[in-house]
């Protein structure tokens, strides 16, 4: 591991220790990453959905790993802050293969990953976490593994059962070696504070309707807030609306609605 990677790994881990909530506006390519960094982001996280869409694939472990690795490398080239990559479920049901994917992502420049259980059994994610950590140790990288559990997101349980199952999974993933727990879909304050108290790793939540603002999340003990695919959806949605209007009307004044000029955008990449 070179000095820059070592410093990024140390910084990224420290960002989860507080006192502020680490807010991540997830990027999907080098351009979006550089744009987000320019607004003072302390780290860059990818969104698996946005990366997949930008390459013409649907979200859900369908993206070829070579394209994922290429995206991570492209982002690492243009940003100066720590980079963490969403590797979905590791793009394989085989824990060893998932570990090798993580190794390739680390070699491309990431010092953190998100890896999820999805519809899979908790023991499968435990095995993937263990292989990811082994791959990182082999490469000499202090990899931050953020384990995502989809109990709330996929409605795998409801009410108090959802909280109990999430706590149980979080504890298993912690024992397997994860460094943080990501629980998309959780919004209730009581559930959040109970989860923080029950699982001894930094909690990451997803921007979601009904979620308290960052200041309240901080008081509840949350350490990380992610935008997920929201920024990518906003960008692609805006492009969709603009292209549809331009194709339908051929109006030359439509570019006036764009918030940045070409010169401003070029300026972002002048030194990369």
Question: What are the defining features of this structure?
Answer:
eight-stranded parallel β-sheet, TIM Barrel, 272 residues, alpha/beta, 50% helix
Helix/strand layout:
Blueprint: H1 3-15, E1 22-24, H2 30-38, E2 44-45, H3 48-54, H4 65-78, E3 83-86, H5 95-108, E4 112-116, H6 122-139, E5 144-148, H7 160-176, E6 180-182, H8 189-198, E7 203-206, H9 214-220, E8 224-226, H10 230-249, H11 262-268
Parallel strand pairs: 1-8, 2-3, 3-4, 4-5, 5-6, 6-7, 7-8
Helix pairs in contact: 2-4, 4-5, 5-6, 6-7, 7-8
Q: Overall pLDDT, averaged? A: 94
Q: How much of the polypeptide forms β-strand, as a percent range?
A: 5-15%
The CATH class, by name, is: Alpha Beta
Task: Supply the number of structural domains.
Answer: 1
**Tally of strands:** 8
Largest sheet: 8 strands, parallel
Question: What is the name of the CATH topology?
Answer: TIM Barrel
**What is the name of the CATH architecture?**
Alpha-Beta Barrel
